[in-house]
Amino acid sequence: MPAPTALLAEDETDLLLFPALRSGWALRGQTAPVLISGQNARRTLFGTLHLRSGHLLLMERTRHRGLEFQEFLDFIRWHYRAQPVALLLDEHSSHKDEQSQSLAEDLDIQLLWLPNRSPHLNPVDHLWGFGKGAVCANWQQPSIELQVDQFMHYYATLSPTEVLRKAGLFSPEFWLHKVSHL
Questions:
Q1: Is residue 23 a part of any domain in this protein?
Q2: Average pLDDT for residues 62-74, to the nearest whole number?
Q3: What is the pTM of this model?
Q4: Separation of alpha carbons 182 and 123, rounded Å
């Protein structure tokens, strides 16, 4: 890709109000109580990572369907309106949707497909794990809205260098180093 192209990796993640339990404790021989109540609220967070600058672009939606992905494509184009955009993404049905692909073409966003079932190749997928570990695991927030705010705040506090490091781009083994010059 020529230098002025915004080379972005894209991925989505679901945030659930009920936390993932990654650790806990109880007296030996006793069961640890796990308190949950209500329905498990869900939000989808769309994100792109600029693979050269480390800039993150995040957008929250109530679900993950073609229409929401298309809104995110509009958001990407608005944000990078002065640059060509190439978007590295997986083959989720919302991405492969005919309207999504048509909109990407209309917005002049080049779609670069990762192999099917290869989340380990997407650097944004690596980032989600850090945020979920820091914000979501082992602790239930009072509301899904507060959890989303704290999740997005976590990423806002990271420097671009920290973002690139957590995404794995500084690793000499990162697969994109072998096929391009980031």
A1: no
A2: 92
A3: 0.82
A4: 13
Query: Which of 155, 172, 151 has its CA nearest to residue 163?
Result: 155
The residue type of 32 is: A
The answer as to whether 37 is a domain residue is no
**What confidence tens digit (pLDDT) does each residue in 72-127 have?**
999 999 999 989 999 999 998 999 999 999 999 999 999 999 988 788 889 999 89
CATH of the domain at 144: 3.30.420.10
Contacts 24+ apart (CB under 8 A), 170-179: 174/123, 175/121, 176/51, 176/123
User: What are the tens digits of pLDDT across the range 123-165?
Assistant: 999 899 888 888 877 777 778 899 899 989 999 999 999 999 9
User: 166: Cβ–Cβ under 8 A, 6 or more apart, which residues?
Assistant: 126, 127, 130, 158
Residue listed under structure tokens 């936390």:
19
* Total number of domains in the chain: 1
Residue 165: its H or E element: helix 160-166
- Enter the DSSP assignment of 40: -
